[in-house]
TrEMBL record:
<keyword id="KW-0456">Lyase</keyword>
<dbReference type="InterPro" id="IPR006913">
    <property type="entry name" value="CENP-V/GFA"/>
</dbReference>
<dbReference type="Pfam" id="PF04828">
    <property type="entry name" value="GFA"/>
</dbReference>
<protein>
    <recommendedName>
        <fullName>CENP-V/GFA domain-containing protein</fullName>
    </recommendedName>
</protein>
<comment type="similarity">
    <text>Belongs to the Gfa family.</text>
</comment>
<dbReference type="GO" id="GO:0016846">
    <property type="term" value="F:carbon-sulfur lyase activity"/>
</dbReference>
<keyword id="KW-0862">Zinc</keyword>
<dbReference type="GO" id="GO:0046872">
    <property type="term" value="F:metal ion binding"/>
</dbReference>
<feature type="domain" description="CENP-V/GFA">
    <location>
        <begin position="4"/>
        <end position="120"/>
    </location>
</feature>
<keyword id="KW-0479">Metal-binding</keyword>
<dbReference type="InterPro" id="IPR011057">
    <property type="entry name" value="Mss4-like_sf"/>
</dbReference>
Length: 135
């Protein structure tokens, strides 16, 4: 297993992940569109206890997601970089954009495809769910 590292745009927040990802997904939900500036969110699921912030203290904004479950959006309080989402599952959804190395990660599933605007590119070869898949 390789230690994964990442952080925010301004460098105030750094984190480490000491486990293999449980999967990689693309989320097209409306909240992810807001958080990303319009596009979907590319996320890797990491076991909750494997993610450790080693520099800085992120902030969290909580609100009910499309499924009705609370979603905690964790971000840098200085530059606003989205870092991860916490949906209360045994995993955290780490944003691929914050990882130092993400070139080898390929989404295996797309979720909340019913919320995707027509201009979101949806690869028909990647399995999809109109809402959240069962966890």
């Amino acid at each position: 297993m390789t230690l994964k590292t990442g952080g925010c745009l301004c460098g105030a927040i750094r984190y480490e992940i000491d486990a293999e990802f449980m999967g990689v997904a693309v989320c097209h939900c409306r909240d992810c569109q807001y958080a990303s500036g319009g596009g979907p969110n590319f996320i890797a699921m990491a076991p909750r206890d494997s993610v450790r912030f080693v520099e800085g203290t992120p902030r969290q904004y909580d609100r009910p997601g499309g499924s009705g479950a609370n979603v905690g959006r964790v971000f840098c309080p200085d530059c606003g970089t989205p870092l991860l989402s916490d949906i209360g599952a045994p995993f955290l959804a780490v944003k691929l954009g914050g990882l130092d190395e993400s070139a080898d990660l390929k989404p295996g599933v797309r979720i909340w495809t019913r919320s995707a605007p027509a201009w979101h590119v949806i690869d028909p070869a990647t399995p999809g769910f109109p809402e959240s898949p069962p966890f």
